[in-house]
Queue: 2 jobs
Job 1
Amino acid sequence: MNAIRVLAAPEPALPNVQSFGHDPLWITIIKAVAIFVFLLLSVMYGVWMERKLISRMQHRYGPNRAGKFGLLQSIADALKMGFKEDLYPNKVDRFLYAIAPVILVVPAFMAFSVIPFGPTVSMFGEQTPLQLTDLPIAVLFVLAMASIGVYGIVLAGWSSRSPYAVLGGLRSSAQVVSYEIAMGLSFVGVFLFAGTLSTSEIVAKQASGGTWEVLGLSIPMPSWYVVMLIPSFLIYAITMLGETNRVPFDLPEGEGELVGGYQTEYSSSLKFALIQMGEYVNVFVVSAVSITLFFGGWRAPWPISLWEGANVGYWPLLWFFIKLVLVFGGFIWVRASMPRIRYDQLMAFGWKVLIPLNLAWIMLVATVRAFRIEGADRTALFTIAALVVVGCLVLFFRFDTVLQRRRETRAEELKQEFELLEEQPAAGGYPVPPLDLPHYHGADRKEISSGIH
């Protein structure tokens, strides 16, 4: 036991909300530029990584011409789109058409300002946290930026004056409303355990899980919230796909039915590049939020955490980057594996499955946290928990019975329709040719036509 304590890493200087706002202006500018450059490089090589991994999954080579392993392909594509002629289709709202990609990409960059990359370090002789800024409601700030970003999609579709683009914008607004509610609810369990909405303090709370007294025994609790709150993380992982319009929830783009959705009228120019950049930066934002809230943030995983210097200095930047690459790889894996679902299935899944599951899970987490409060009335808590469980079961069986009756009624209606079509083939809509066409062999066309109609 003593040996384990010797190997345990000492706690670094952990930043909190009060640690911010004291940096010199030049340190703040350096950190802001560093985040901006990091996101630009992440977008370029995120595109390369996605194309390369999907091609290998499909037994293709992928980008392999520009540079070693095709590493310069994304740079070549960016230069190409930057220098292509910027066209404005007829009848578009020119101002909104031009500003929509900017509205889409700027909030995504702003959301990264509250993501912690590491502890307090020495930067050019100044002690500063590896985070641009923090707020007492930092997680809500991320959700607010995600909500503003959808205006870019809606305006891009509306200003294009194209039916496909307008439908894509409408789909995106409805999708974000439904899935952002589920996303926000999936954070509630983390807030209950951490007791704060500050991103830096949530990471600090995952330094040690503490112990839980059960029947006189001290049970060590895991430090990362993904272990204790696995339903919250799974729901958040699904909402990440819906929030960023990624497969299988890329209905606002829907190439099969909407050509390209809200970006149909944007040619492969700088505006199109901004739209793609906004999409990928949003993917990295939701990935970074999942790391911060559920995977310990910049903290090293076990057994690397046993090394004394794992969570000190600039090493946490490496652990954060590795986690970010792994989560982004999950996005790519889903895109290569799953087909696009129907829009009615998308909306029904968000409102009828994810939100009720989230509410039930929040009730359970709140009950567990209440049990750990000293002096809590355990009898009242048990009674409330039992009533909630019984109520959920009653609702489930009630709805299950109603749905079963609806299925049986629908099956009976379909059976009657099929029987009617077998007796009268033309009863289902348009008239059909008679089944005894060989009988008209040798007759002229007028007789055949009269027989059909």
Job 2
Amino acid sequence: MASLIELQTFSSEVGNLTIIEKVLKNGIKRIFYIYNAFNQVRGGHRHKLTYNALTCVSGSCKVYVNNGKIEEEYILDSPDKCLLVEPEDWHTMYDFTENAVLLVLSDRNYEKEDYIYERYADRK
């Protein structure tokens, strides 16, 4: 199941420095970011193999995660919060603020065959 971690951050009078390293056990193969998604829903899939790390570097968004047994909603509202999403985690991102930039790190390159769009039944 997905888990929320706090990224290491160093603060001083000249600003903050947040480090993203060693969050994905297989390293980082792909980096992308989502923006201009105000009033949109993104994601809507799970993976066969890919692990992702999500952090909102500007603004905020919510992430719904369902692994077939547990459903959770996470709020990414600080650049030092990072959501680790496992392959079996069906997820959507939504409620983006107008200035939201969601950074996504993946441990695999894009492969169309890795995506599963069938969602689990909601437990609510």
